[in-house]
Amino acid sequence: MDRVEETYQIFLGQMGEGGFLEPYRQACRRMEQKLEKINEGYSEELGRVFISQVTCRIKTPESCLNKMLRKKCSLEMQTAQEQLNDIAGVRVVCSFLDDIYKLVEILKEDQEIEVVKTKDYVRKPKASGYQSLHVIVLVPVGKEEKKKVEIQIRTQAMNFWAVVEHHFVYKKGNYGKYEFQKDLKECAKAIYKIDKKMLLIREKMEMAQTVK
Ligand code: 0O2
Fold first, then answer.
1. Residue 165 resides in a domain
2. How many Å lie between the centroid of ligand 1 and the Cα of residue 43?
3. How far apart are the first and last CA of the chain?
4. 135: Cβ below 6 Å to ligand 1?
5. Which ligand 1 atom is at minimum distance from the Cα of 163?
6. Which of 86, 169, 174 has most ligand 1 atoms within 8 Å of its beta carbon, as the pocket-test mutant?
7. How distant, in Å, are the alpha carbons of 67, 83, 91, 142, 162 from that of 148?
8. By alpha-carbon position, which residue is closest to atom 27 of ligand 1?
9. What is the extent of the structural domain holding 107?
């Protein structure tokens, strides 16, 4: 084993053992419970499904290592904690475009957590066509500690696109290589149009119901 490989193994060992990831698991669970509660309340208030899906994942030590190398960070736990926003990740799938922004406002008003950063790839999609709104929050775990959780919020249509693209392109890391990426980008634009149209339809339905 050469020196570089040894450094990687030490990093992976420290991440995998010694309880480094455990508080992130707790933060994820806390956020999941919070989102379930928010969903119950708002689905009842709105008379329709507000959040259709919540999934949580903890980044694997290997994926953390790859990201640290991509970001050219020194391979230390402290640096990982500071530089990686998505060791704990929660994905929220909403029904409509405006639900995404409603949820961001709800999260900002929550006294228990702190919103530290938002990235709006809905208003400004990535070059790939990726649309999603990312909110990085600090979630308390135990008495003293807080851990960062990245919440990815998107519509069902955006999620469909992101899951497919993640599998066939994003994780392969070779952008511009495939002819179908142009088609994927067109699909992302079509999805945005459909999401806007679905929102309009919902608003018209709501208006019709209040006029009755
Ligand atoms: P994985 O395996 O999905 O976890 P930052 O430090 O926050 O500025 P970062 O984390 O690269 O830098 O931020 P960004 O761009 O917001 O990406 C965070 C996550 O969003 C990614 O995590 C992906 O999950 C998702 N994502 C970003 N861009 C794309 C894209 O073009 N297509 C798809 N399908 N997903 C995307 P990871 O760790 O890169 O990957």
1. no
2. 29
3. 75
4. no
5. 34
6. 86
7. 16, 10, 14, 14, 22
8. 130
9. 3-157
Complete edge-to-edge strand list for the sheet that includes strand 88-94: 51-58, 88-94, 145-155, 133-141, 114-120
On whether residue 115 sits in a domain, the answer given is yes
**Cα dihedral 136, 116, 173, 62 in deg (nearest 10):** -70
Whether the predicted model's global pTM rises above the 0.90 cut: yes
Does a structural domain hold residue 114?
yes
pLDDT tens digits, 126-182: 999 999 999 999 999 988 899 999 999 999 999 999 999 999 888 877 677 778 889
Query: Do 130 and 162 form a contact (C-beta atoms < 8 A)?
Result: yes
The count of structural domains within the chain is 1
What is the SS3 assignment for 153? strand
Longest dimension (CA), the chain: 75
CATH of the domain at 89: 3.30.460.10
Does 38 fall in a domain? Answer: yes
